[in-house]
């Protein structure tokens, strides 16, 4: 007569399995409740840093005369900022903010910006190239070359003058104009603009692609007229 030895091990019952899954779900939920806000805070802090860099790059570029090209075209940095804020309200001269890889040892002779470094093969950051924040108008012929070496996204910036009305700052509702903040009349140039400061609102919109063909084409023009919900907005100012 044969006897069968009973196994000393047995599997989990269905009830035990369900209980284990329930406990695991509770633990995962608690983990998400505790750590998700912290992760979200980290993402927001990074975004704030990026926003600060782009806003700073815009403010600096608006008043900086680069090389013989701009010193010939504009009398002062304030004249440049006046024209760029004014014309930037149209698609042709729209302002674009981005970062690109620039060669350390090679500068463009006409505006003293680094030549773009489109290839990373055998190149070392800090030795062969640096990442340069840049603001250019869409009509700038150097933009297409910069786009070949872009790091990250390209942002369209819509700048709108802020004027006083009823004791508070409001946006100038007439596109491609800079108005006398006190009288509301159009100022033809920076030379006749009576104030020492131009206050403006800068809306930063991330473009869906950074290809030169998109930015120079009709799709960009269409988007310029229809952009909504900027990634962030900053109220800035330029001074004489």
Share of helix, binned: 25-40%
- In terms of DSSP E residues, the strand content is 25-35%
Structural class: alpha+beta
Total strands:
7
Mean pLDDT: 84
- H-E order: HHHEEEHEEEHHE
Describe the structure.
The protein has 240 residues and is an alpha+beta fold. The protein has a domain at 61-94 and 155-239. Helices cover 36% and strands 26% of the residues. It is built from 6 helices and 7 strands; from the N terminus they run H-H-H-E-E-E-H-E-E-E-H-H-E. The chain has helices spanning 14-62, 67-73, 77-87, 143-147, 212-216, 218-226, and strands at residues 95-107, 114-116, 129-137, 150-165, 168-171, 197-206, 232-239. Strands 1, 2, 3, 4, 5, 6 and 7 form a 7-stranded antiparallel sheet that branches. A hairpin with a 6-residue loop joins strand 1 (95-107) and strand 2. The longest helix has 49 residues, at 14-62. The model has no long low-confidence stretch (mean pLDDT 84).
Blueprint (SSEs and pairs):
Layout: H1 14-62, H2 67-73, H3 77-87, E1 95-107, E2 114-116, E3 129-137, H4 143-147, E4 150-165, E5 168-171, E6 197-206, H5 212-216, H6 218-226, E7 232-239
Antiparallel strand pairs: 1-2, 1-3, 1-4, 4-5, 4-6, 6-7
Characteristic terms for this protein:
240 residues, alpha+beta, 7-stranded antiparallel beta sheet, 7 strands, 26% strand, extended
Question: Brief overview, please?
Answer:
The protein has 240 residues and is α+β, with helices and mostly antiparallel strands. It is 36% helix and 26% strand. It has a domain at 61-94 and 155-239.
């Amino acid at each position: 007569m044969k006897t069968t030895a009973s196994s000393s091990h047995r599997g989990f019952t269905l009830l035990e399995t369900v209980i284990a899954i329930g406990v695991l779900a509770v633990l995962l939920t608690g983990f998400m409740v505790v750590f998700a806000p912290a992760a979200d805070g980290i993402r927001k802090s990074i975004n704030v840093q990026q926003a600060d860099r782009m806003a700073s790059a815009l403010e600096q570029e608006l008043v900086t005369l680069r090389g013989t090209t701009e010193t010939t075209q504009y009398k002062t940095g304030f004249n440049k900022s006046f024209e760029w804020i004014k014309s930037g309200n149209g698609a042709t001269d729209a302002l674009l903010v981005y970062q690109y890889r620039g060669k350390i040892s090679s500068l463009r002779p006409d505006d003293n910006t680094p030549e773009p470094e489109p290839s990373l093969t055998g190149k070392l950051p800090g030795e062969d190239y640096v990442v340069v924040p840049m603001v250019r108008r869409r009509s700038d012929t150097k933009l297409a070359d910069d786009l070949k070496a872009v790091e990250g996204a390209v942002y369209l910036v819509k700048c709108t003058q802020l004027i006083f009305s009823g004791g508070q700052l409001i946006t100038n509702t007439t596109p491609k104009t800079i108005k006398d903040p006190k009288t509301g009349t159009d100022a033809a140039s920076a030379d006749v603009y009576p104030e020492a400061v131009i206050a403006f609102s800068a809306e930063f919109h991330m473009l869906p692609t950074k290809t030169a063909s998109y930015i120079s084409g009709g799709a960009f023009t269409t988007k310029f007229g229809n952009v909504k919900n900027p990634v962030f907005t900053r109220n800035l100012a330029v001074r004489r």
